[in-house]
Amino acid sequence: MMTDIIHLLPDSVANQIAAGEVVQRPASALKELLENTIDAGANDVIIIIREAGKSLIQVIDNGCGMSERDARMCFERHATSKIQKADDLLAIRTLGFRGEALASIASVAQVELKSKRHEDEIGTKIIVEGTEFKGQSPVSCQNGTSISVKNLFFNVPARRNFLKSNNVELKNIIEEFFRVALVNPAISFTLYNQERILFQTHAGNLKQRIINLYGPSYAQKLIPVEQQTELVNFSGYIGKPEFAKKSKGEQYFFTNGRFMRSPYLHHAIENAFQELITKDSFPSYFIFLEVDPKTIDVNIHPSKTEINFQDIRSIYTILNAAIKQSIGKFSLSPTIDFEVEQSMNITELPAGTTIKQPTITINPDYNPFEKTVKPQNQFSFPASRSSVQAMNDFYKDQSTIPHVDLPSTNTRLLDPEQAVEPPKYFQIKNSFLVTHSKRGVIIIDQQHAHERILYEQLIDRSVSRETSRQQLVIPVTIHLTPDDLHLLQAWKDHFSFLGFDISGFGKDSVLVTAIPPDIEPDDIEGLIESILESLKSTTQDNKSSRLQLLARSLAKKISVKRGKKLQPEEISSIIENLFACKVPEISPDGKLTMVILSFEELLQKFKH
Ligand code: ADP
Ligand code: MG
Question: In this structure, is residue 336 part of a structural domain?
Fold first, then answer.
């Protein structure tokens, strides 16, 4: 006998299944509750957490509140006040709209809701436990809504056991809280953990909110980002390169008020920061995107943070340029990437869309340390030009380095203002250069420093189209393997940007007629071969333009190495030119060029 075997799941089971997606942990329940307070128009939100949210997550808001009937309805699956018809999906401006969060939470916890609309005399209270309706009664309460989620997963022991330690779950809770607090600076939040205030933020602007959450030192660390195009508006802040962190973390994208993860756009920022920070550190950013909701996929899974954009490539290009522009304007100027990668082609805009390219004026000679002095067109050891002034200016700018309070008897000796005497430079171990400044003792790695100087000179001249070359009296024929020949052909233009003239590509040889100035012309074949060799191992790095890669490997080849004894004028040339660089602290490879031992640290060391 055949019987039908398909039947509808009871609501309680359906809700628990949905809860598996919506509520994985206390932090995800908190996220839903917080989003509801924002959708309800609240401007004051209190969060109370006990046992990392395992025993209690309570959220109290002063938003619109719910009527008696709405308070019952809100626990139904697909009960939402936010959309009514399919068309509404295209213009979603609220955070929630699926109407499943409260139904899911109530299916796996004991929930108590109190709510009162401003126009009502009295509020209403409802208790639901594991989808089971336990009762509703009038209650006198404040305007707005309070929802307590108690004993999450009380009826699903497997999931409760799966929760991590209180430490880990609390960290997740704080992270969710930050994501909401950062994007809603006009709302004041108070987060209690075990009866203690963990965070309290006041209504303000974004910068105040960041400082509120991360501490007052952030006041000096932030650079604003602002870019408006027809496709997308960007706003927010990035951390100055010198404050890049050794650990990931403060990296936030928000789109239309919603936290978003985007490895692709993250790369646009990383790329703008490259060479400004060491390889093992991470830039901070708080970037807000505003786009037409019609151009993103709104059917976002509640626990997913990825967003699909119609034209992510153009957004990438605009963001990358906006970040570079901000860094250049407010801090250190990066070298210019004038090769636009093919994949970032702006022409892929949907028909009918026009975007205003961000207007970026980058001055290739921009030098944050000195306004009047222009780099000289000489390699290696140009006569000293940047002077002590450049170095002193460099330190003057570091206003965040704590000022040393020296005992008064010492001030004459170490007073920064007295330190304008030309510093004495010397070399130790044929490798390191030592000097001092207003702030402390500076130890410079001669090789890394010289790489930085040469690199910037190469790029600067190439960008300003002032590349000079030394014509070879007798052109040199060099022999290469077919592979190398092929590679050189592909990089020919970039070699030329840097001052090489290479022609006469034959079967196994080329003719070199000019090389950059100040390169010893004795082993041109060896030089080109070794550059090609290093290009083979670095072409993978798609963060840099070809010009940057080539300049980097050329600078490495022709720089002075550790172990070389330098003449006094060579030492002063390196030190002074280094401080005139745009990014003096870091080699083109991202390694440190110098270590500064501040007087404060010295005093600290001599304390005991
Ligand atoms: P969604 O947010 O997707 O609509 P939820 O399950 O999160 O679904 O909420 C269901 C409904 O309950 C919301 O549409 C809203 O009308 C109401 N609601 C939930 N939380 C609040 C709140 N804090 N204040 C006012 N109304 C709320
Ligand atoms: Mg919701």
Answer: no
